[in-house]
Amino acid sequence: MTACNMRSTEFLSAQIGPYSSGYLSVKIRSRNGNAEVVRAVAVDHSSTVVKEVSGLSNLILRRPPLTPIPRVVETEKRKVSTDDDDDDDGNDQGRFGMFGGKYVPETLMACLSQLESEFNSVLKDTEFQAELATALRDYVGRETPLYFAQRLTNRYKNSNGEGPHIYLKREDLNHGGAYKMNNAIAQAMIAKRLGRKTVVAATGAGQHGIATAAACAKHSLECTIFMGTKDMEKQSSNLHLMKLLGANVKSVDGSFKDASSEAIRNWVGNLETSYYLSGTVVGPHPCPSMVREFQSVIGKETRRQAMEKWVGKPDVLLACVGSGSNALGLFHEFVKDKDVRLIGVEGAGFGLGSGRHSATLARGDVGVYHGAMSYLLQDEEGQILEPYSIAVGLQYPGVGPELSFLKASGRAEFYTATDQEALDACQLLCRLEGIIPSLEASHALAFLNKLCPTLPAGTKVVVSCSGRGDKDVATLSNSIH
Ligand SMILES: Cc1ncc(COP(=O)(O)O)c(C=O)c1O
């Protein structure tokens, strides 16, 4: 899959379509601030070269100045929820600084515009909001507890008996075992409103697959889930659960990124009848905004619960980052509270130097992938690199555009944890608190080792326990004794 690489390297690649029934893909050489096309080809939707395009080689393209990143963080959420003009005039392309957008073939634009206008309408629709609130309470099981982890807190006390206070936002207690259900149930309701009969989705760890399959069963929608063969092997219990819930599970050679491409391809062939239920804050606008909006219940509850428990705000929010939806779900409510630290933890796999990691924000560059501009793991030619983490849900070569913006603007901090650190953290939580976190959430927990000694006594840290570890039992029992 080709990505548009915005590094200051000599050669850049970009899909700047649409062209005929696919894209025009160009390779560009940058020179004195300008860019010159050195090769142009037409590619179809599966990125197969259809033909060479001549006549462009002498075209000098002036690179547009990159949008400066504002110092004050103004996320696009405000436009969606409060600015009617932006919502309705179609000009809002879901930009977060330079990130986001809609890099899709023309054929998809109408469908995405329809989705955007439906999304904007449900935000204001009191009937929809009431139905969603009931579903979140009675079906998903919200609100989830903000649990004070007393023994974990004790573990990080210094020799004076002082240290931060650690709380877990228990998203593992949601129906389906993860935060994924918050978004799936809401989007299934949108699919229904749009009159769609079938839903397609892609899953990595299987949690979004389970959430989508369950939401589709509840709303009588036919459900097809695409999953990579490598992930099926590692998360086989979730594969069985999806089937039990009535989903048609299709295997795709590879991992989550390949399953995502296949699900999108399938959807593009059935735009009239089918709904693509995005599971995370990536993809073309409005997908990142929509998923973020439905996940932001996590942060809203956290604010309320913190107020009840210690009459204040959290000081630090900590979440793992695969493509970014549990992190944004927790962070978004607090983006404007500058006194709240937002910390994301990516998968360092076998170590950042090993080349086998999924640390997109730590090691990636800006480019376009799956329809939006964000940080990506890519090589000099703009080819996507295979991500790796012991936590299947962290294996994505991109990351949400809004999170990319939070990194670029300096509002959020991002660190990494290795496979081994995550396994150790998982074991620690099992033994100290009797809670089995998913391997994804264990990455956030692992960072407590480095973070806690640096924090003033009494600092209130909220960790997103994004899912439960039942799905990881095979990996855990091979690694933890
Ligand atoms: C339990 C759990 N936590 C975290 C993630 C990471 O995804 P994201 O970064 O979008 O929250 C996943 C992804 O599948 C997951 O299943």
TrEMBL record:
Show the ranges annotated as biased composition (Basic and acidic residues).
73-82
Q: Which InterPro entries match?
A: Trp_synth_beta, Trp_synth_beta/beta-like, TrpB-like_PALP
Q: State the GO CC annotations.
A: cytoplasm
Record keywords: Lyase included?
Answer: yes
Q: Which UniProt keywords apply?
A: Amino-acid biosynthesis, Aromatic amino acid biosynthesis, Lyase, Pyridoxal phosphate, Tryptophan biosynthesis
Q: Which GO terms describe its molecular function?
A: tryptophan synthase activity
State which pathway it belongs to.
Amino-acid biosynthesis; L-tryptophan biosynthesis; L-tryptophan from chorismate: step 5/5
**Organism's domain of life?**
Eukaryota
Matching entries from PANTHER family are given as: TRYPTOPHAN SYNTHASE (PTHR48077:SF4), TRYPTOPHAN SYNTHASE-RELATED (PTHR48077)
What name has this protein been given in UniProt? Tryptophan synthase
